[in-house]
Amino acid sequence: MAAKAQTYKGMKDYLPREMRLRQYIVRTLTEVAERYGFEPMQTPLVEYEATLAGKLGDDEKLIYRLQYGDDRLALRYDQTVSLARVVGQYPNEITFPFRRYAYGPSYRGERQQRGRFREFFQFDLDIVGVDSRVADAEVVAVISESLARLGFTGFRTLLNHREVLSALARVSGVAPEQAGQVYRAIDKFDKVGVEGVRAELVTSGLGDDAITAILEFIVLEGTPETVLATMREALQRDEQGLKAVEDLGTVVRLLGALGVSPTAFAVAPRLARGLSYYTGIVFEAVIEQPPIGSLLGGGRYDKLIGAFAGRDVPTVGTAFGIERLQIVMTELGLAPQESSTPHVFVTVFAAEQMAESLRLARDLRAAGIPTVSALQADKLGKQLKEADAKGVRYALVLGPDELARGEVVVKDLKSGEQQSVPRAAVVEAVR
User: Can you tell me the distance from the alpha carbon of 178 to that of 204, in angstroms, rounded to the nearest whole number?
Assistant: First the structure.
């Protein structure tokens, strides 16, 4: 009995139509990253389990673990921990500040939901080795430019600082051992709303005054200047909190200098970001429709790389989730008209004309025109049907009559119109 044809739950096959959009997304992100001076890097899918252990907080339970002989291994959870390992492993081969980008799959054993898979692809970019608000702003600028280049409108990158949330817990009278519960509750704001967060905080054992102070703070909205002013007032008794607010203000000013539209970002005190390794500025890009949550996120993590380098190495970065971008772009009709679909299908009229048809296909490809040719002589109607099914725009017919006249029939499969053109002019006619 043949095995049932199926993919493992939480993983997905991508057929050509979907892959063309994925490739377009990655090409666009690569072009933007390289214009900002980011360099390509790649790491293995498999790491030692000890490399990932202790780096992911509560999410460590989602690691896919393997064993090969005596080696305890794990599939890459994300590309951030792998970056940290690389920086620690190659101290003499990396020049700081180090701007890198990387694209590839990672794996998490979590419940599958819309836009979230167990195998997922991310495009990461990070600036390593400098504690600079310019670096923070530059990563946010790359996010904004990339989303605009992909055709998104109405998106915003939400900004906050992890130390702001720590200060909020302190000034609200939250005990240090309860602070983590506060962060986790705030991180659920977009899913459960104010009352959901309130219920989480009540369950955590916080008093009414602390809960009220926290909720009033995280619902702040308005222009960056207005929100920052209110944050300063609320955290005025906490020196570290005020420093974090000043950092946010600096990033806001730098985004203006980098040309990021004021409508493309906002200061959001409710933004927490779940991963435990963030230490400073955090950000998420969101879009109201379709309702899919955040498009991507990231932030500053100054301690993680030190686990391998033996010293703190300040770093800021972000990760674009390709699946999520693809879902939203498809729903919004943002898939580009131009793609890698072959533009031309060269038919084979008869076996005797095969060589001429192949030479015609060769000339088109040499001119940079994506071209597919029939692999055997068959009924012309069947070949045209194949070309149409592949989404090809033009079919070329080169039969004995056309050869005798030195011509080629160019048929527009979209309109149904056709014309005969000189063989020497085919490339320009198709172009």
Answer: 7
Assigned domain for 400 exists:
yes
385 & 257 share domain: no
- Is residue 25 within 8 A of residue 296, CB to CB? The reply is no
Asked if residue 143 has pLDDT above 90, the reply is yes
Classify burial at 242, counting beta carbons within 10 Å of its beta carbon; exposed 0-12, middle 13-18, buried 19 or more: middle
Strand-pair partners of 104: 122
In terms of domains, do 319 and 395 share one? no
Banded model confidence at residue 274, pLDDT cuts 50, 70, 90: low
Q: What are 4-52's pLDDT values in tens digits?
A: 889 888 888 888 888 999 999 999 999 999 999 999 999 999 999 988 8
Do residues 145 and 138 lie in contact, with contact meaning Cβ atoms separated by under 8 Å? no
Chain segment 280-294, per-residue pLDDT in tens? 999 999 987 776 778
Q: CATH code at 414?
A: 3.40.50.800
**What is the spatial distance between Cα 280 and Cα 313, in angstroms, rounded to a whole number?**
13
CA–CA gap between residue 166 and residue 102 (Å, rounded): 31
Alpha helices in 178-291 (DSSP H): 179-187, 189-203, 208-218, 224-234, 239-257
What range does the domain containing 236 cover? 16-331
d(CA 64, CA 6): 20
How far, CA to CA in Å, does 81 sit from each of 43, 243, 303?
10, 28, 11
Q: Is 11 part of a structural domain of the chain?
A: no
Total structural domains within the chain? 2
Closest to 399 in 3D by CA, of 429, 371, 357: 357
